[in-house]
Automatic annotation (TrEMBL):
<dbReference type="InterPro" id="IPR052161">
    <property type="entry name" value="Mycobact_Acyl-CoA_DH"/>
</dbReference>
<dbReference type="InterPro" id="IPR009100">
    <property type="entry name" value="AcylCoA_DH/oxidase_NM_dom_sf"/>
</dbReference>
<dbReference type="InterPro" id="IPR013786">
    <property type="entry name" value="AcylCoA_DH/ox_N"/>
</dbReference>
<dbReference type="InterPro" id="IPR036250">
    <property type="entry name" value="AcylCo_DH-like_C"/>
</dbReference>
<comment type="similarity">
    <text>Belongs to the acyl-CoA dehydrogenase family.</text>
</comment>
<keyword id="KW-0274">FAD</keyword>
<dbReference type="Pfam" id="PF02770">
    <property type="entry name" value="Acyl-CoA_dh_M"/>
</dbReference>
<keyword id="KW-0560">Oxidoreductase</keyword>
<feature type="domain" description="Acyl-CoA dehydrogenase/oxidase N-terminal">
    <location>
        <begin position="12"/>
        <end position="119"/>
    </location>
</feature>
<dbReference type="Pfam" id="PF02771">
    <property type="entry name" value="Acyl-CoA_dh_N"/>
</dbReference>
<keyword id="KW-0285">Flavoprotein</keyword>
<feature type="domain" description="Acyl-CoA oxidase/dehydrogenase middle">
    <location>
        <begin position="123"/>
        <end position="218"/>
    </location>
</feature>
<protein>
    <submittedName>
        <fullName>Alkylation response protein AidB-like acyl-CoA dehydrogenase</fullName>
    </submittedName>
</protein>
<dbReference type="InterPro" id="IPR046373">
    <property type="entry name" value="Acyl-CoA_Oxase/DH_mid-dom_sf"/>
</dbReference>
<dbReference type="InterPro" id="IPR037069">
    <property type="entry name" value="AcylCoA_DH/ox_N_sf"/>
</dbReference>
<feature type="domain" description="Acyl-CoA dehydrogenase/oxidase C-terminal">
    <location>
        <begin position="230"/>
        <end position="374"/>
    </location>
</feature>
<dbReference type="Pfam" id="PF00441">
    <property type="entry name" value="Acyl-CoA_dh_1"/>
</dbReference>
Amino acid sequence: MTDTPLDFGDPEDLERLRHDFRAWLAGHPLPERPADEPLPVFLHRWHRQLHSGGWVGLDVPEQYGGRGLTALHQVTVSDELGARGAPGVPRIGYLAHALLRFGSEEQRRRLLPRMLSGDDVWCQGFSEPGAGSDLAGMSTYAERRPEGHYIVNGQKLWTSYAQYSGLCLLLARTDRAAPAHTSISAFLLPLDRPGVTVRPLRAANGDDEFCELFLDDVRLEEFERIGAEGDGWPLAMTTVAYERNALDTGHLSKYGLLIERLRRAAHERRGTLPDGLLSDIGRCAVDYQVLVAHARRRTAERLAGQSAGPESSVDKLLMTRAEQRLYETALKVFPEELYGEGGEVLGDYFYSRAASVYGGTSQIQRNIIAKRLLGLPVGPRA
Ligand SMILES: Cc1cc2nc3c(=O)[nH]c(=O)nc-3n(C[C@H](O)[C@H](O)[C@H](O)COP(=O)(O)OP(=O)(O)OC[C@H]3O[C@@H](n4cnc5c(N)ncnc54)[C@H](O)[C@@H]3O)c2cc1C
């Protein structure tokens, strides 16, 4: 693991940005969400509103539709949103980084501005029924035809919000003979292409976040491939490393708000909360401080020009533990959430259970830490 000094750049510059953002937020409050509006639709409206003020893609170069500032400026905006309990900036940073690194100049200029503005909504087509943790074992196949285009067949699973998306970052095998890690390519799949079927799945909590994606003789052109043939594996690893990174401080500020609420409840109900629960609140506060330190460290690394890598697995494990402990504790302190109508804490509690699965399971993060950070000898399954 690297040891980058914590350098947070010019505080005056950031103070100015924070001030400008607060002023903008005062004139552009969070829009109302009608009871029947699906969450992704509401978040998309919020995304567009933030973009209209220039608050999306602050660290993306200007020629690709961003503001050409730094990760620290983006973090500052995220932090302000989280501290207000507002939804964060749209979670597209990891897709943008994959495009910045692997896309051609033409793809970056064409796709990034529309991604940042919300004109194009993307989803991520990596997992399959037989390939989640073992992503390299995917079987979706893009056969290259002599004319130069590809014909794709296969199935993707758990594709979040594909039914609200127009484009999918798709991984498919392009060579059946080569080793798995060099035989996967990445494509930009328009979801209205003939042969694509998107079928939403209803989860136990009533949400239809997940989708199945069926691909039957779908034609993709060569210019729709992102990177070279065989670049799909490093592209996927870049994407998930950014996805697992602790850089987005918006959710940390949200944890901070809940910890403060727990602290107040402990004071108000002095003597009635069991000691075990008070210790749990203390542990949540410690988890939070550790995560904040990690977010600072990742920000400093990014400012030093370092890309996200396997150390993101440490962040993902810490975040999972912190989030699950926090919402479990909150439900014990506020049992009315569980037995009453069920508010935000209950919804967040349910979603926190998925944290040890999405973006790669906790077991897989431990394997990555063992293998790539600690260099431990590993068995054939890892
Ligand atoms: C909320 C949510 C959103 C998601 N969104 C998307 C999305 O948008 N796009 C997408 O492509 N995917 C998405 N996923 C899928 C997610 O990436 C996979 O669920 C995850 O990678 C695990 O794969 P799996 O479900 O097939 O489980 P499996 O890989 O079948 O794993 C089952 C169990 O075996 C364990 N295991 C497997 N292999 C090993 C090993 N080598 N060592 C130790 N333990 C092992 C796992 O840890 C797990 O406990 C999402 C998942 C969730 C929960």
